[in-house]
Each structure stands twice: as C-alpha cells, then as structure tokens.
Amino acid sequence: MDIAKPVGSEVSSVDFGVLSTDEIRKLSAKQITNPVVFDTLGHTVNNGLYDLALGAFLRNLCTTCGLDERFCPGHQGHIELPVPVYNPLFFNQLYTYLRLSCLYCHHLKLSELEVHMFTCKLRLIQYGLLLEAQEFENMVAKDSADEEKQIEPEAKQMLIEKRTKFVDFAIAAALEEGRTLEKGLVTEIVGEERKRTIHLFYARILTRPKCDRCGMVSPTFRKDGFVKIFENSLREKQILENRMKGLTRPDMLRKSGTATPATSVPSIKPALGSKYILSTEVRNILRAVFANEQRVMQVVFHSRPQLQGYVSADMFFLQALIVPPTRFRLPSKLGDEIHENTQNELLSAVLKTSLLIKDLNDQIAGHHSKEKASSAEARKVLFNRLMNAFVTIQNDVNAFIDASKNQNAAAGKIPIPGVKQALEKKEGLFRKHMMGKRVNYAARSVISPDPNLETNEIGVPPVFRGQIDLS
Q: What would the pLDDT profile of 433-448 be if each residue is shown by its tens digit?
C-alpha cells in the first residue's frame, strides 16, 4: 500500500435497463419450443429446457461452445410468446400512462403548452438548476388552459420558442460559470425535486375530464391485479359530446393510426359496463402516444441530459422470455430418479400455454380443423377459450418473474419462487462466507481504523482474490 498515492477514481453513474425483444433474440443460443424435458429413456429432448445448446448436461458436451459441464459457462435461450404480455415489474407504470393518454388523438391529455412547460422544467432539473426551474415555473404561472385556447397557433409557437430560449440560455450560463456539468448534476435534492415534478405532471393530467388538445372524452380504465385491464364504457352524454366533435377512435387493434369521421361509423349504441382489452391494443395505443410525445418522454425517463435514446413503450411488454442457462437450473437427483428444477415448472407452463394459444388460433382460422365451426356458438366457445388462454399466459409469465403477482397461485400453498424472489434472498457467496460476523477471513469494513488500510480500501482474503477477478 502506497499512502502517498491514494485511489482517486470514483463510480460516476450506474445505469439499469430492460433488454428489448431483438436483444433477447441476439443473446439467445436457441429458441425453446418443447415443454417436454426428458424422453422415456431419460435423455434430454431437442428444443426443450435442457437442450444441449443451453449448456453441457449429463456428461454431454455443449453444442454451442463444445465444452463439458466443468468449463461450459452456460448459454441463455428464449421463448417466443404468441402475444405480448405485460411486464409485471412495470404494470403500475403502464396502467398510469394508459390513463394519461387520449385514445382519439394519441397525445397526453394535457395541452401542448403545459407539456412543454414540464419538459423545460425537467431539462433544467437534469442539470441541477433548481433556482432556474423555480424562476421558470413562476414565469409561466399565469398561463392557464383557458387562456391557451384563446392563443393563436403563431403566438403559441412564439411562446414555446421563448421558453426554449430561456432554458437553453440558463443551461449555457450555468455551464460557463461551472455550476453544472455537461453530463448533468445528480444529488439527493435534485432527485427529490425531479420526483415531485413528475408526480405533479401525472396529477395534472389525471385531473383532466377530457383531452385539452382534441376535446374528446376518453373512457376510463380499471385493472384486475397485474393481469387484466378493463375499459369502462362512456355515458350517453359523453358519447353524444364526442360525436358532435366529429371524430371516433382509431382501431388500434388493427394498427390504424388515424381518426375517422363519425359519419363513416354506424350509430350503434354501445353496451354498458366494461370490456376486457387485449395487451396488443394497449401496446399499440402506448406506442402511438410515446411516438407523439417523445420529447417529454425523454426527459421523464432519462435523468441525465446525455441520454438521448428513443424511449419506446415496448419496455412495458414482453414478447420474448429469457430462459436461464442449464447450469443455473440443474435438476436434483434422488437415487436413479431425476427431479426437475422448480424454475422449469414455471417455464414449462409458459410453453404449454403458448402452444395452446397457437392451436386455438389455428382452429379459429380453420387451418387444422377438418370442419370449420358451422355455428356462431362454436366460434364463441373457441374465442372464449382463447381469451382465457391470454389471461393464463400472463399469469404464467408473472409467476416466473414475480411469484407474488400470480393470481392462479393456490391459497395456503407456498408458491414457487420467481426471479424476483431469487434475487431478494439474502444468501450468497459473499454474505455467507465472506461477510459473516464470526468468520475469521471476513473482509468487511469496521468502525475502528486499521493502520494497514486507507479509508477508501478494503481487505480481501487471498483465497477470494486468487479465484475471483474483480477487474
């Protein structure tokens, strides 16, 4: 240890992200399609959860890297889901953004000037300019939704440019004076102000009974756990008010992105109550809203200014599911019997439901059925089975990721732990063997000073340093 040269490096930031569907496919060694794991002779099945492409298994070499089970690091696979499912970790955020969205113009329900105001304020907060953000908020406090309706488009554009110039000048002045950095400034106070501003942004939109941009009244929603979303029907007065505006909702289930005149739609009185909406429709709605509101989405989801990547609504959905390598799902042996890993049971359920959905789709389309359904009742039964399968696969994915969000879990029975439960367990190599109070070779920081260690150093036992590379 050289006390004359202390360590001067520091961790400036840590980023967490969500793998996209394309990234999962590129990282995958093989697509898993077979829910059967072993054949009658106890051998692994091709395209199964113990496929040799995911790693060496039972004295068989790995077909991906060619190594045996001692040296093969393991390779992940993936399961293609027949329909997009909600990511249970972000379901609450998805539900919030669905409520913030106008289903007619596919913008946030807030006016353009107010959305721009929050965009400018969040840009200032990214650089830690809280005083300038407060000054900017006071400057635009006189603007209200009623006043904005009287502003001409040219005047509105001039006001937006004026606000943008104020923000750009404030950031440039702070950079020149050294009060902020190009990569932004993140402190506890800045983080709290950012959370408060985003919360106010959401609350401001949720108070809107109708869209400030197009004036249409969108239906409200309700959720059933972390599985289903229902759309509540509009009242007759709201339906008549919408018809007088001259626009109807685009059919997002068929990905039609433009509104159609009300005269082209037959006047059919909608059924009262609520209806179940498919995850595909929810995804298409949020995709359109995020595309139209990309500027504000970038400052809401990016806490630092140098992050300028496209913010996609696909982060709320899963189209492909990662299958962990075989070495992390090894079966247990009891005599001559081999018992599968509990994680395999969850993944097998996803595969079985996926095959069921594909089979029902084929039956409805008439591809594999010898005789097409001749009656409306038979088609209705198939359609209801398909809707139930959509709910089932959502529960299966929820159980794999987070067991606490599985509605199909048996009451009074401990559910199989999901990925979230595995990460939350307080067991591991370092905690059990390195950081224990009664372990002689524990490398842990203590209150009393050590003359051989500096304040920015920690001792590591030779047995750990010799086997673990921390570079």
A: 555 555 545 555 454 5
